[in-house]
Amino acid sequence: MGAQLNEVQELETRVTNVFSVDVEDYFHVEAFSDIVPRERWDSYPLRVEDNTRRILDLLDDQEVEATFFVLGWVAEKRPALVREIADRGHEIACHSYWHRLIYKLTPQEFADDTRRAKDVIEQAAGRAVVVHAQHRVVVKRFNPWPPAGRHALPPGCRQCPGRCGRWT
Ligand SMILES: [Zn+2]
Fold first, then answer.
1. Which of 18, 114, 124, 135 has the fewest Cβ atoms within 10 angstroms?
2. What is the pTM of this model?
3. How far is the CA of 61 from the centre of ligand 1 (A)?
4. Do the Cβ atoms of 152 and 167 come closer than 8 Å?
């Protein structure tokens, strides 16, 4: 009886730490969307490679595995970076293609963006992507969109229980 109680207490106090990284660049942030239109993203120097490699080195030092939510646009421009993240033992996940706010998209636009991102990320990583997180998902009661279930996501995607309020 005492041993069983200790096992239950141990389970109740065990903490799981989860580490995730959004693989995107400084000019992808929503706050800049009015002054840095998406059609000009190509004109900005990328910092995402060096910054991601710094994080990869830190994770290696600590022997920590993480989930990297990769922007499809980044995967298309720097596929070798995505492959390196995967080859260094981390999970590759989808962070949309254009980093748009989900409630500004129609269901069709969301599906198209997610499919495009998933395809390009999988090609770069050389493996299937099953987790998706949309940029800054905010579910508003008065807005019927975004969808409340996994059925609107492309086949192969699922909702991650570990990222409260975000699509996966
Ligand atoms: Zn993001």
1. 18
2. 0.75
3. 25
4. no
